[in-house]
Structure formats: structure tokens, C-alpha cells
Write a structure and sequence with these properties.
With 370 residues, the protein is α+β, with helices and mostly antiparallel strands. It has helices spanning 2-6, 12-19, 25-39, 50-58, 67-76, 82-85, 91-95, 105-121, 152-168, 172-180, and strands at 185-196, 201-212, 218-226, 229-239, 245-253, 257-268, 273-284, 290-295, 299-308, 316-322, 328-330, 335-340, 343-353, 357-364. It has three domains: 2-95, no CATH class; 99-183, no CATH class; 186-369, Immunoglobulin-like. The protein is built from ten helices and 14 strands. A hairpin with a 2-residue loop joins strand 12 and strand 13 (343-353). The radius of gyration is 24 Å and the shape is elongated. The N and C termini lie far apart (81 Å).
Length: 370
């Protein structure tokens, strides 16, 4: 009996959880809630108990779990049905796609992994980076296991990238562009919200959605902020997401400038995404009303929102984009502004930014209102 138990094939669900490093209950529950948010918000927090998960992965459950659990599991593992997840299979079988998913997509998966492998070892200095030319994500994450000759790191990054493609509804063209960025840390989005009170004192909130396409964990994010005037030392506090803790490491402080790093725990592993943020208070806008943001890495979406309380009137408002070669272009096509009562509200957006670019928003309001 002991020999028979040792050779019993594992459940496909158990193999996939181990392959994704989701086998601890805490991690499983976190990934379950992420998927539940995309299925039905009422299912967040409804993950199975630790004992129930053990029954699922050990094969003690007869039939399938409740339909809500099945819906979330199918979102967690794109391309697999609930029936397939609760089959006993060898590890090799667990990693293969279902027959309906295979055909022409295998070639695309091979191209993706080839690009990842090449760029991991020698990141390109200049890659195609811009709006997609075509829609239609069509490659299953499971297909990366059918491609021969790819490294384990490329397989892991490829699977994560293809899953991200489905979640964000990226086109094949966008997924291919991201594969070309392997070896880099990419910002899927950078958002900055600046709230300025009638006396010019501000609260600045940064949020960075990071995608680690390198082969090393990412444990810190460096930042720098400068203000025309400050109230003693700037206050900088972390904003943590449900899966990551952030601690602020002060590096250098002067009267107007602070250099610091967001230390991330646990680090963002290759192929993972995470949101890292911080809140900065104690900076004042007096006479020079502008915000310049340098772009240190490839950034898919950038959003700057400014609310100037009590300004009542916007005299001028304009935005510029600096290129890596030093040239400057107008960015006013991506700038909108409006009034909300006595407040002036401005939003600047830009997509597909490159390292060493910079964006600057400038505005004028009656000085007596600040």
C-alpha cells in the first residue's frame, strides 16, 4: 500500500501551484483574492480554508468544488478548466496546454521565449516601444512548456508575461514589445497625485506598478523629490499593497531635496508585478508652479493629477516632454484641466515612455490665492 501511495500522480492543481510558487496557504489566499476581484468582488475573502485547500490538492475531494470556487480557479490559471485542475496527472502533463489551445500559438510562444532569453543576457539599448499595431491576445501561458530549448528563467518570465497579457488585455504586439524589454524593470504604470492646499502646502502620492522582467529580485525603488520651499524635513511615508510591505530608507536630505528608496519586502521576483508607493508631505508651491518628473525606466502609462485648492482661476497651463537626446516637445495634447468649485484640477497623461525622458507640467494662478 505504501508503494502505491508514493506513485499516485499528483493533482494538476497541486503541480501548478508549486510551479508558480503559490503552494503556501498565505500566498494561495492572496492570489485567490486577486483573481476573485476580476470575477466578482463579492468573492474576495471567500478563499477555501487551509484544510479545504489541502483536500483539493491531495485529491480527497469527490467531484468539483462549488461553482464560485471553480470560476476563481479558472481565472487564476488561464487556459485550464476546473475539471482539468482536479485531474491526477504527471508534472509534464500538468504543464501542457489542452489540445484546443495548442496550434499556431506555439510558434508565437517560441518567438516570445527566444526574445526573452536573448535580452536577459544582453538587454538592448533601443527597442520598439509604442502603441500596439494589432489587437488579439492568442497565446496560452501553458504553451511556454511546449517550447524546446528555452531556459527555465525564460519559461517563467514567458508564462507570467502571457498571464499578464490576458489580465491587462494586451495585444500580441504589446506582449512582444515587453518580451524585448527582458532584462529590465518595467513600470506598467506610474501615477502621481498632488494635492495643494490654498497656502501652497502639498501632499504628493506616488504609485508605481512594477513588472520585473529581469532575472534578479527587485528589493528597492529609488526616488528623489524637490520643492521650492519645505517645512523642516519632508515627511515621507510608505504605501504598501496587500502582498508587499514598503519601508522608506532616507539617503540624503537638504533644505529642499530628499533622496530616498522604497525598500520592498518580499522582493518582487522575476516575472512578478507589484504596486509600490509612498506619500510625501511638507513641500510648498510658492511662486514657481510646476512639476518635473524624470523617467528612469520604460514606462507604459504615466498619469500626473494636480488639484490646486482655492486657486479659483487658471491663468496658464502647459506641458512639455523632454526626449533622451535633450530635445523638447509639447505634450499639451495629453493635458486636460477643469474647475471643481474654487479648485483647479489638471491631468497629464503619457504612454510608452523611455528611460531618460522627462515630463514637466507648469501652471499659473493668481499669487494671492496661494
Amino acid at each position: 500500500m505504501e508503494s502505491q501511495a508514493m506513485t499516485t500522480p499528483p493533482m494538476r492543481l497541486k503541480v501548478l501551484l508549486r510551479e508558480r510558487h503559490w503552494q503556501t496557504y498565505r500566498t494561495f489566499r492572496s492570489e485567490y483574492d486577486k483573481a476573485a476581484r476580476k470575477v466578482d468582488l463579492s468573492l474576495v475573502g471567500a478563499a477555501p480554508s487551509r484544510a479545504q485547500l489541502h483536500r483539493w490538492t491531495s485529491g480527497e475531494v469527490k467531484g468539483l468544488p462549488y461553482s464560485d470556487h471553480c470560476r476563481v480557479l479558472e481565472k487564476m490559471f488561464p487556459g485550464w478548466t476546473a475539471e482539468q485542475l482536479f485531474e491526477r496527472v504527471t508534472e509534464d502533463q500538468a504543464e501542457r496546454p489542452s489540445p484546443a489551445e495548442e496550434p499556431a500559438s506555439t510558434d508565437k510562444a517560441a518567438e516570445l521565449l527566444k526574445a526573452i532569453d536573448q535580452n536577459l543576457h544582453a538587454p538592448q539599448g533601443d527597442v520598439e516601444w509604442g502603441p500596439p499595431a494589432e489587437p488579439a491576445p492568442s497565446v496560452s501561458p501553458a504553451l511556454v512548456h511546449t517550447v524546446e530549448g528555452a531556459s527555465d528563467t525564460a519559461r517563467r518570465l514567458g508564462r507570467q508575461l502571457l498571464e499578464l497579457q490576458r489580465v491587462l488585455r494586451l495585444s500580441d504586439d504589446e506582449a512582444a514589445q515587453l518580451a524585448q524589454l527582458s532584462g529590465n524593470i518595467v513600470e506598467l504604470s506610474m501615477s502621481i497625485d498632488i494635492d495643494i492646499d490654498p497656502d501652497g502646502w502639498s501632499r504628493v502620492t506616488y504609485r508605481h506598478q512594477m513588472l520585473n522582467l529581469s532575472d534578479k529580485p527587485m528589493a528597492r525603488l529609488s526616488r528623489e523629490v524637490w520643492f521650492e520651499n519645505t517645512r523642516d524635513r519632508l515627511s515621507i511615508d510608505p504605501v504598501s499593497d496587500p502582498d508587499r510591505r514598503v519601508m522608506i530608507q532616507r539617503i540624503h536630505d537638504t533644505a529642499n531635496l530628499s533622496t530616498f528608496a522604497c525598500q520592498i519586502s518580499p522582493p518582487i521576483q522575476p516575472g512578478e508585478t507589484a504596486t509600490v508607493g509612498c506619500v510625501c508631505e511638507g513641500g510648498q508651491f510658492l511662486n514657481d508652479h510646476y512639476w518635473r518628473q524624470s523617467i528612469p525606466r520604460y514606462t507604459r502609462h504615466y498619469t500626473l493629477r494636480v488639484r490646486h485648492q482655492g486657486a479659483r482661476q487658471l491663468l496658464r497651463c502647459w506641458a512639455t516632454e523632454e526626449e533622451p537626446n535633450g530635445s523638447e516637445n509639447s505634450a499639451e495634447d495629453a493635458l486636460v484641466w477643469d474647475y471643481d468649485g474654487d479648485d483647479v484640477v489638471m491631468t497629464l497623461t503619457r504612454d510608452h515612455l523611455r528611460p531618460n525622458q522627462a515630463l514637466t507640467l507648469r501652471w499659473d494662478v493668481p499669487h494671492e490665492s496661494a
